[in-house]
């Protein structure tokens, strides 16, 4: 057996602050219904809104930026923070599904991950539904015109 670990095992599953979507202008562009470049992927209680942008627009030299929204049914701050934390954790583990296509290119991806379910189903639903939604978004991006 080789002493060199598999490439996937070498990856660091971190989520640095530069990967967080914070600019209002970029977030607003994802929710603008008049834009035709915004795509969506839904799976169970999770919906992804995403679009490809020029890397210079982000303000950081990163392949993508991600934002998280817990949804209107999370009434207390404790529920909102717990749902956001679960979304971040599951995304952090599965992030390379979306990161890999944009690492070497001039474009970047902005993504908003929305939780649409009841707060009671967050523990089971996010871990079950977010990875397939990320794969579906990555599959739709593979067919984009370069």
Overview of this protein structure:
By secondary structure, this protein is of the alpha+beta class. The chain has a domain at 49-146: 2-Layer Sandwich (Ribosomal Protein S5, domain 2), CATH 3.30.230. It contains five helices and four strands. A four-stranded mixed β-sheet has the order 1-2-4-3. Helix 3 (77-94) crosses helix 5 (122-142). The longest helix has 21 residues, at 122-142. The protein is globular, with a radius of gyration of 16 Å. It starts with 6 loop residues before the first helix and ends with a helix.
What are the salient characteristics of this protein?
146 residues, alpha+beta, Ribosomal Protein S5, domain 2, 4-stranded mixed beta sheet, 38% helix, disordered N terminus
Summarize the structure.
38% of the residues lie in helices and 20% in strands.
What portion of residues belong to β-strands? 15-25%
Query: Major sheet: size, sense and barrel closure?
Result: 4 strands, mixed
Q: List the helices and strands in order.
A: HHEEEHHEH
Kindly state the number of beta strands. Answer: 4
Using the CA coordinates, give the radius of gyration.
Answer: 16 Å
What is the number of helices? 5
- What structural class results from the helix and strand content? alpha+beta
- Reading side by side through the largest sheet, how are the strands ordered? 1-2-4-3
- Name the CATH class of the domain at 49-146: Alpha Beta
What helical percentage do the residues reach?
Answer: 25-40%
Average predicted confidence as pLDDT: 90
Output the CATH topology of the domain at 49-146.
Ribosomal Protein S5, domain 2
CATH architecture of the domain at 49-146: 2-Layer Sandwich
Overall geometry = globular
Low-confidence stretches: 1-6
Distance between the termini: 40 Å
